[in-house]
Amino acid sequence: MDFILPPELDRWQRRVRQFVQEELQPHDAEVEATARVPEAALAGLRRLGLFGTHTPAAYGGLGLSMLGSCLAVEEIAKAHVAFYYLCGVNVHIGSKPLELAGSEALKRRWLPELASGRMIAAFALTEPEAGSDAARLGTTARRDGAGHYVLNGRKTYITNAPQAGVLTVFATVDPTLGARGITSFLVEAGTPGLTVGRPIEMAAGRGSSHAEVVLEDCRVPAGNRLGEEGTGFALAMRCLDAGRTHWGAYCVGAAQRLLDLAVARASARETFGRALREHQGIEWMLADMAAAIHATRLVAYEAAWRYDCGDGSAATLAAARSKLLGADMVHRIADQTLQIFGGAGYSKDEPIERIWRETRVVRILDGTSEMMRRIVARELFREADRRNARL
Ligand SMILES: Cc1cc2nc3c(=O)[nH]c(=O)nc-3n(C[C@H](O)[C@H](O)[C@H](O)COP(=O)(O)OP(=O)(O)OC[C@H]3O[C@@H](n4cnc5c(N)ncnc54)[C@H](O)[C@@H]3O)c2cc1C
């Protein structure tokens, strides 16, 4: 086992790190104040290919491994979360349904647009009455002759819906079939019957958008179906594996940024005649933070590696484990960093309170931490049952 990154990935991560420091972080305060991502930052994200890190090169992406993609995400996470909501979410749940299940014609038409960042995609699974229990979604897809489906329903919390050029909409062709009735469709913005509804203001993430999506007799060509009827739920879960693997890496990057800020503050600030970091209570807190980030980084890289190995169930488990541990870890690190900063950490003069709010969401989106525990426990029990059966 080798814990050293291959030179090309190491170079890639350094390049993204430099870009984030020079071209994204300087805009953090502006994004928070204005709730807008400046065009210059967007242009930089596009220039580096960060809208298509994991999209195959044949469709205009960088074609990186999942590890390479996660290394970029780890760096993007050191800037305002609005940047990640735009490019990162586009890379995984935005583009993945099309990449994994779209027809060749659909992939050729849309993936280059998405990978270049000229267009953004959204993933519309959650509904007001179906979040964690997504298999119970109520949006319906009715066949309208041979050539079309008609979609009706309402989605909520859909990231990037207002800007999206295309949306993957999950709907059921037969509610009595449960998960086996769920089917996914690529719906173009502007299709009659598709409207972006109420924008939803979140606790954090100014500059990003999340909204309701309403489908009222929305006619979609049958050629826009992604995969066969009834395969949409499995497709959603495969896309979420990629999303969770990326969010695990996001947690590591955001936590590292916090630790760097905490160390700088504890070195510069004096209390009781000594640097803060010379007080053992603070020194130990910093050491625990560094150790936790290191452990979680290894788990995140392992999840990326498992994804690259292509073993579906091992990748699902590793992604859930990484997101579960990362979400808890980063929120704890944010809280500890805020504590080390004292009043300054709680004030809006410093970025700490913003990152503290931003990182809270990882325990909720792309599957809550309780759902991640269900996946981890499912594997735990399967293994125990296999062992018992052998006895
Ligand atoms: C900022 C943000 C962006 C999002 N972006 C998208 C997006 O782009 N596309 C999309 O489709 N969705 C998106 N979502 C929705 C997100 O995926 C859901 O919020 C999430 O899956 C949880 O669903 P819910 O909010 O309906 O909570 P519920 O399902 O109502 O759950 C409420 C609480 O109960 C817990 N719970 C539920 N069932 C159980 C159980 N069996 N055992 C133990 N605990 C349980 C949950 O873990 C949670 O803590 C986004 C959400 C947020 C906040």
Account of the protein in words:
Helix content is 53%, strand content 15%. It has 391 residues and is of the alpha+beta class. It has 3 domains: 7-116, Acyl-CoA dehydrogenase/oxidase, N-terminal domain (Butyryl-Coa Dehydrogenase, subunit A, domain 1), CATH 1.10.540; 121-230, Beta Barrel (Butyryl-CoA Dehydrogenase, subunit A, domain 2), CATH 2.40.110; 234-390, Butyryl-CoA Dehydrogenase, subunit A, domain 3, CATH 1.20.140.10. A 4-stranded mixed β-sheet has the order 1-4-5-8. It has a 4-stranded antiparallel β-sheet with strand order 2-3-7-6, with no helix packed on it. Strands 9-10 form a two-stranded antiparallel ribbon. A hairpin with a 3-residue loop joins strand 2 (140-144) and strand 3 (148-159). It is globular. The two termini are 32 Å apart. Bound molecules: flavin-adenine dinucleotide. Residues 123-126, 131-132, 157-159, 202, 210, 361, 364-368, 370-371 line the site of flavin-adenine dinucleotide.
Question: What labels would you give this structure?
Answer:
391 residues; alpha+beta; Butyryl-Coa Dehydrogenase, subunit A, domain 1; Butyryl-CoA Dehydrogenase, subunit A, domain 2; Butyryl-CoA Dehydrogenase, subunit A, domain 3; 3 domains; four-stranded mixed beta sheet; four-stranded antiparallel beta sheet; 13 helices; 53% helix; globular; binds flavin-adenine dinucleotide
